[in-house]
Amino acid sequence: MSDKPHQNLAVIGHVDHGKSTMVGRLLFETGSVPEHVIEQHREEAEEKGKGGFEFAYVMDNLAEERERGVTIDIAHQEFDTDEYYFTIVDCPGHRDFVKNMITGASQADNAVLVVAADDGVAPQTREHVFLARTLGIDELIVAVNKMDVVDYSEDTYKQVVSDVTDLFKQVQFNTDDASFIPTSAFEGDNVSEASENTPWYDGETLLEALNSLPVPEPPTDAPLRLPIQDVYTISGIGTVPVGRIETGTMNTGDNVSFQPSDVGGEVKTIEMHHEEVPSAEPGDNVGFNVRGIGKDDIRRGDVCGPADEPPSVAETFTAQVVVMQHPSVITAGYTPVFHAHTAQVACTIESIDKKMDPASGEVAEENPDFIQSGDAAVVTVRPQKPLSIEPSSEIPELGSFAVRDMGQTIAAGKVLDVNEA
Ligand code: GDP
């Protein structure tokens, strides 16, 4: 670990615009992936007819490894710059990218938005920018990528910058909080060194922009909250839930409770990076073992917290939501799937309480009959199965969600109040 301040960084953008390649490039240029590993992947990639895609290939391999559950070390990719120690809170190659982003973006302090110069603003560009804004990303660094494909054309770059700026205005993301850089993740232009191919650009490189990000706000002093990602059985140890600590600390000997499964016990061991540790803190990815807990007692979507301050389980909750895209209108009774931390639960929108004016934040209409794309509203939600979730004002890390239906993110929001079961 390093003494530098820590930044959680999300890398977002439309599929194939170069997120994995950019992350691979960043890891490579900051010396975080040894040359021989890259070389090995380059050879393998060439054998499989994917020659030249080694950076993306590194990321895909890491994602695959994680999905197969080969290792319980689920540490995210890390690199450091002169100013900061960065953790990439998302695995860009992952097939459930948006779902991850709900948890990832809410943990991320800042984000790099990758937009391919030859494709411009695409559906997932919109979706990710919308989520970033709703979930509270502070600053966006926009990498206008694949500049090599458009012959480093300044005009094309300016067009993309203008389209992305329009998108920011639509979702009311303050454009002062964004910077734009023409890059090629593939060729390495303007990533760590100013490129000779873009003489018309005299701004920062991507690494310089990362260095100039503001220092993130310190974490809250909330109690332990650890959403469970997976539950493994490891020989010699027993049941090992794994996940990332969002808030608080976990120590061996602590009495913990898993909600909504409603079981608990004493933490016997905690493992991080294949080593046993006596305690772990926010941002740490851990596997741990709790006395008396079997594999079928707990599941993905449970949240682990202190036995004396257990995670809340909602009978109903109120939330502020923003509707991003819905083919028709949303009325009371609508029951899409809510994605909150690692949980996915069908929830009924029981009532639409207020429609808000998104610009001013004032109430525009009480008890409207429906809401539609672009609307912000306060709604009352009833989970169809037990769901652990927290008010965003108390534990922001556990207080946001995305609403998905028909394979798309329909809305995203923040929890205002929880009525406990
Ligand atoms: P992701 O889906 O956003 O993670 O995109 P990938 O990183 O997997 O990249 C998709 C494809 O675009 C791969 O074939 C990459 O090699 C290629 N690619 C990524 N960045 C660049 C770039 O800057 N220039 C060119 N020419 N190709 C790129």
From TrEMBL:
Q: Name the Gene Ontology molecular function terms of this record.
A: GTP binding; GTPase activity; magnesium ion binding; translation elongation factor activity
Q: Where does Mg(2+) bind?
A: S20
> What cellular component terms from Gene Ontology apply here?
cytoplasm
Instruction: Tell me yes or no: is Nucleotide-binding among this UniProt entry's keywords.
Output: yes
Annotated compartments: Cytoplasm
Q: Which residues form a coiled coil?
A: none
Per UniProt, which keywords does this protein have?
Answer: Cytoplasm, Elongation factor, GTP-binding, Hydrolase, Magnesium, Metal-binding, Nucleotide-binding, Protein biosynthesis
Task: Cite the binding residues for GTP.
Answer: 13-20, 90-94, 145-148
Is Zinc set as a keyword in this record? no
Question: What catalytic activity is recorded?
Answer: GTP + H2O = GDP + phosphate + H(+)
E.C. code: 3.6.5.3
Q: Which family is it part of?
A: Belongs to the TRAFAC class translation factor GTPase superfamily. Classic translation factor GTPase family. EF-Tu/EF-1A subfamily.
Protein name as annotated: Elongation factor 1-alpha
* Gene source species: Halarchaeum salinum
User: What would be the name of the gene that encodes this protein?
Assistant: tuf
